[in-house]
Write a structure and sequence with these properties.
Elements lengths: L1 E9 L9 E3 L4 E4 L2 E9 L5 E7 L6 E4 L1 E2 L5 E8 L3 E8 L12 E6 L5 E6 L4 E3 L4 E9 L4 E11 L13 E5 L7 E9 L10 E10 L7 E3 L3 E5 L2 H41 L2
Parallel strand pairs: 3-10, 12-19
Antiparallel strand pairs: 1-2, 1-4, 4-8, 5-6, 5-9, 7-8, 9-10, 11-13, 13-16, 14-15, 14-17, 17-18, 17-19
């Protein structure tokens, strides 16, 4: 039987975590961790097989390399999915372990990142000279590798479904790292030389450092609709006039209410 275990847990390089050790067979590690096993046996054996069980099948077998005295052996396997693992021993007389112990294997999958735009809160009508700050919050269980601004231009009068081609992109400079970050990237529309009526559909992408393929998440998409500067000025003037009119209405109602209260007080004082 196996009398002692010495495990070395070599985490995936992209996690930038130090190796760990354990003398317990039950392990919980990030998926992709290489588990290096050194097993000591209670007596000399002729053969030792490491078996990784990932379901209802017989498992994947690999031979342990035995020391010259046959009292210990070493091997390794990758933790790619939840399951269990065991070591099957064969004695010099050919007898095998009747029911070798199974140790639990938990391979924690790397979750994809997430990213949420916190400003602006909705689509905007802007001029082609606009420069908007895009603020966001991004998260990842092992830390983010980067954030990218992406956008696609829909010409005036064009059907969005008919627009093709690769979306443009700009890498975002991150001022912090970690599992959760907040950031801001200015989106300057002036260099795009947009015409009135065009739309710019934009979004943010966050990616982690997972290898070989990074996990990528996209925010909800926003749209900047380009207005002629004169049209924008006229709209702003209308909105300002409407706001002033609303404020005047509120003040008039407040004055009417105050006058009513003053009248009631005078009536009471005159009794």
């Amino acid at each position: 039987s196996v009398s002692a275990l010495a495990l070395r847990l070599v985490h995936p390089a992209y996690l930038q975590l130090p190796d760990a050790t354990s003398t317990v067979g039950d392990v919980q590690v990030p998926a992709g961790t290489r588990i290096e096993v050194v097993a000591t046996f209670s007596r000399m054996v002729r053969q030792a097989e490491l078996i990784v069980h990932g379901g209802t099948g017989e498992g994947v077998r690999s031979a342990l390399t035995l020391e010259a005295d046959g009292r210990s052996g070493r091997g390794s396997f990758d933790a790619v999915a939840d399951g269990s693992w065991s070591i099957l021993l064969t004695a010099p007389d050919g007898l095998t372990t009747a029911d070798p112990p199974r140790w639990t294997l938990v391979a924690t999958a790397d979750r994809s990142p997430s990213i949420t735009v916190t400003f602006p809160p909705r689509d905007k009508d802007v001029t082609r000279f606009a420069r908007w700050p895009l603020r966001f919050t991004a998260r990842d269980d092992h830390g983010l590798a980067g954030v990218r601004l992406r956008w696609q231009i829909i010409p005036a009068g064009a059907d969005p479904e008919a627009v093709s081609g690769e979306a443009a992109s700009q890498e975002v400079a991150l001022s912090a790292t970690g599992p959760a970050i907040q950031g801001e990237v200015p989106f300057d529309l002036a260099p795009l030389n947009l015409e009135a009526g065009a739309r710019v559909v934009w979004w943010l992408e966050a990616r982690d450092a997972r290898s070989p393929e990074p996990g990528v998440a996209s925010s909800l998409r926003g749209t900047f609709t380009i207005l002629d500067p004169r049209e924008m000025r006229e709209r702003m003037a209308r909105e300002k006039a409407e706001l002033l009119n609303t404020l005047k209405t509120i003040r008039d109602r407040q004055n009417d209410a105050k006058a009513g209260v003053d009248g009631v007080r005078k009536s009471i004082d005159g009794r």
